[in-house]
Specification:
Layout: H1 10-21, H2 33-49, H3 60-75, H4 89-110, H5 120-136, H6 153-162, H7 171-192, H8 199-208, H9 211-214, H10 223-239, H11 242-253, H12 259-279, E1 283-285, H13 293-319, H14 341-360, H15 368-377, H16 395-413, E2 416-418, H17 419-433, H18 442-455, H19 461-482, H20 496-510, E3 517-518, E4 531-532
Parallel strand pairs: 1-2, 3-4
Helix pairs in contact: 2-3, 2-6, 4-19, 5-6, 7-8, 7-10, 7-18, 8-18, 10-11, 10-18, 11-13, 12-17, 16-18, 17-18
């Protein structure tokens, strides 16, 4: 790791910071980070000023983002050079051709408004709650929404971009996905060094051919975005760009209610193994030089106050827990909702359903036999197109997990500590004992792809052929998932309930109303008026 040593000369210190800030708009792969830099403060400004009473934000967010894009294009240094495709040229041409088909479908799907069954969480709370707060001009707890007590800084940061259109869009997630692919290419190439320039592009093909990722490509879901934030922060640290690293890791750390606790557990266990390896004089491999880490850590601590602080304070005030749905009432003080016994009982039951559901709703158990079987079962469908882990990860997972485990065992026998590989092991272990849902393996699986592909001496024809099959199957899968929307745009793709909300929007604005309107469900992302849901539907909707 590279350490930053501060000099007493204040002028030189300020100049060093200035030079670092001068690079914050590069490389192009980190452009999605500016959604969070721009969007989060703008959301709070619009909420406090109540400038979006109908849930439609100004175009300022996109104007600012566009200016950053133009600046980055003028200064860009993508850091990815050309590579020789003369070997197995036909395989590369086929791979890139199938990738273009996949990306075409993803872009086509990503330009449509949210409406897919895969976008349940978006329709249920990511979009609904952030829009309701803008309509109300208030950060106070929405009384019928248990998930309004979650950590939602990611939602708030993207909301000014989502709601510039009357029909909420998912364009930021689409751009973030392209940033994710680019960052994976950069990290894989960096680990592989110049001797294997094909490693980065091959890593991109593997990601595009992974069925588990394809489920969320072109949708409004945020799991791929969370993976981007972590990998981008790693890449920024590698480049010494402390500003972007601090922003990216801050939003990653506070992206989900249980993420802070998970990160602390993972880093604690990883740190223990790292210290143990150092004391026993193991060789440290597969790591990056982390430059300016003190500045990035300092920025993380500073940014965490405005990014996470309001949500933690809100959770404590209403539910007496810093990280709802974990243990409401645990602090023993406050809990504003507790003054309403019926609402408090409903909230506690919602918490129980979330915590127990995360533990018990997925997988085949946690015994030794289940652990052995899960390596295969993760990849394949069991019930229709899904499996016990929600949805299968696909062929590319099977292609890469074997070499990864081989390298892991080989490193251990040779007394080598692979920093990223051990990080994956700890992440996977935590996943195994908690929520065995396949989408929570996105990040460790991407790291597996990066470290394994970077260590391959060559790509065999068999491996490339299997990858082409996976890309072909993924293209077919994506086409099947989105073909019903062919020739339909805008309102035409929406569900009936969304169209009903659009009709209510028109009446609400036409008559200049300002009252709440009862709606039968939590699913109200298209509402441009204050919604009141009176029917309990746990765990999301509680009594009040």
């Amino acid at each position: 790791m590279g350490f930053l040593f501060f000099r007493s000369d204040r002028t030189l210190y300020i100049m060093a910071i200035h030079r670092s800030l001068g690079k914050i708009t590069t490389p192009l792969s980190h452009l999605p980070t500016w959604f969070f830099i721009i969007g989060y403060p703008l959301y709070w400004l619009e909420l406090i000023a109540h400038s979006a009473p109908y849930g439609v934000t100004t175009g300022l967010s996109w104007v600012l983002f566009g200016s950053v894009v133009l600046r980055c294009l003028a200064l860009h240094n993508n850091g990815i050079g050309p590579f020789d495709t003369s070997k197995e040229k036909s395989f590369w041409i086929a791979g890139f051709g199938l990738s273009l088909v996949i990306l075409g479908i993803v872009v086509w799907a990503g330009l449509k408004p949210i409406h897919l069954i895969q976008e349940f969480d978006c329709l249920q709370y990511h979009y609904t709650l952030s829009r309701q707060h803008l309509i109300l001009g208030s950060f106070a707890h929405i009384p019928w929404a248990a998930d309004d007590l979650f950590l939602l800084p990611m939602d708030f940061a993207l909301a000014p971009f989502w709601f510039t259109t009357v029909l909420p869009n998912k364009i930021p997630q689409l751009i973030i996905f392209f940033g994710l692919i680019s960052v994976i290419v950069r990290l894989t190439s960096a680990l592989a060094t110049g001797s294997r320039p094909w490693a980065g592009p091959f890593g991109a093909l593997v990601v595009l051919g992974t069925h588990g990722f394809g489920i969320q490509m072109g949708t409004g879901m945020l799991d791929l975005g969370i993976a981007y934030l972590f990998l981008a922060s790693l890449d920024s640290w590698r480049l010494g760009n402390w500003f972007l690293a601090g922003v990216e890791f801050t939003f990653f750390l506070w992206s989900k209610p249980m993420m802070p606790l998970a990160v602390m557990i993972i880093m604690g266990i990883w740190g223990f193994f790292f210290v143990l390896a150092r004391r026993n004089h193991w060789q440290i491999i597969d790591t990056f030089a982390i430059n300016h880490w003190k500045l990035a850590l300092g920025l993380l601590m500073v940014l965490s106050v405005p990014v996470a602080g309001p949500f933690i304070a809100k959770s404590i005030y209403y539910a007496a827990t810093p990280f709802f749905p974990l243990a409401p009432g645990v602090l023993g003080v406050g809990a504003q909702i507790k003054t309403h016994p019926q609402a408090w009982a409903s909230l506690q039951y919602a918490s129980q359903l979330w915590m127990e559901g995360a533990q018990n709703n997925y997988g085949h158990g946690r015994d030794l036999l289940s652990f052995i079987k899960h390596w295969w079962l993760l990849a394949v469908p069991e019930k229709g197109v899904n499996n016990a882990f929600d949805y299968p990860l696909g062929l590319t997972y099977l292609l890469i997990i074997g070499p990864f485990l081989f390298f892991l065992v080989k490193d251990s026998l040779q007394r080598k500590f692979s920093s990223l590989s051990v990080l994956v092991v700890v992440m996977w272990g935590l996943w195994w004992f908690t929520a065995q849902q396949s989408r929570f393996l996105y990040l460790p699986l991407m790291i597996i792809f990066i470290v394994t592909i970077a260590r391959l001496e060559k790509i065999s024809r068999g491996l490339f052929l299997c990858l082409l099959i996976s890309l072909f199957l993924e293209a077919i899968s994506l086409w099947g998932a989105h073909k019903s929307d062919i020739g339909r745009w805008g309102v035409d793709v929406l569900r009936d309930k969304d169209k009903q909300l659009l009709e209510l929007n028109y009446r609400y604005r036409e008559h200049s109303l300002n009252n709440y309107i009862d709606w039968p469900s939590h699913d109200a992302a298209y509402a441009q008026f204050p919604v009141m849901v009176r029917k309990e539907y746990l765990p999301h909707t509680i009594l009040f």
